[in-house]
Structure of Aryl-alcohol dehydrogenase:
Amino acid sequence: MSTITTAAVVESPGAGFTLSQVELADLRADEVLVRMVAAGICHTDLSVAKGALPFPMPAVLGHEGAGIVEAVGASVTRVRPGDQVLLSYTSCGRCASCHDGHPAYCETWLPANLIGGRRLDGSATISRAGSEVGGHFFGQSSFARHAIADERGVVKVGPGAPLDVLAPLGCGVMTGTGAVWNVLRPRPGSTVLITGAGAVGLSAVMAATMTPATRIIVADRIADRLRLASELGATDTIDTTKRDLADEVGRLTGDHGVDGAVETTGSADVLRTSIGTLAVRGTAVIVGAPAFGTEVPVDVNFMLPGRHVVGLTLGDAEIESLVPVLAGLVIAGRLPVHRLVTHYRFDQIGQAVEDVLAGATIKPVLRFDPPVNG
């Protein structure tokens, strides 16, 4: 049976979000109907909303959902009605990457999550007045009071878990922590550089404090964010409006360089500088995504002494393994994600977007209060 609900719809590229009534399709056997409690807003949502990535409009976006299961498809085994869940990306479960434990590199990742707007068979999950609406964003489209989610993108959490704090675990927090834990894997005494003190970068900071790294350097242009980075465990900060990034890293490391770098800004210039700060056998992780076609020149001879540059999607995380660990750390007070979060009502989504674009908030999270008319 289909579900009528309210969603934040982007009518056309750059048009912003407008609340509108939509209809969700009947559940497939491997799908879950979730009543949303909270949803984080990510820069990927905003990039698609402004038309920077190809996605069918009108559209319902949102990919850091958290809520309560209302119904499940016939073959679903991970969750049941009444469970609290977090939503993340979807994957096929059949390709080589999925079988190897790296579903973030699934062969179907782009059409299934980012640019398709439909299920892989081409069918729509959302419609309005008889016309299809772009949906199935990251297998969920959670900027709505209800969402259809693929079972592979659903993770159960405990009944008392604070969903309005945990919602960002499904993308931003998982990406930052995964960059450090799954890719850099700092050795004792390592130095880590993190460029960009947004939600992903600050999550990387928190993750790095749980490793044997002894120096955690954070670079940003916003003083308040650098202060927060220090409070979260950064040993050194660089205000790039006042100091040159490469020079300061050289000074802090005695020109040795950093063992690992996590680049979250999406700036080609910052990425090029980050690569140039690498020590011998150092690794730079590309997290921030610039425009398609962006190229960064690399000195081949500089790379020969074992330096690495690696791209990263969603922390290279297997969500059933990592997300419950992250949730447990948040609940235990060891991963203070709440320091990044500012809450907004669902109908304040426009203000939340303005605030994050202005740098006034780090991680906006929408709260879905019970609607007046069901």
Notes: The chain has a mean pLDDT of 96. The first helix runs from residue 43 to 49. The first strand starts at residue 3 and ends at 10. The chain has two domains: 3-170+340-367, 176-313.
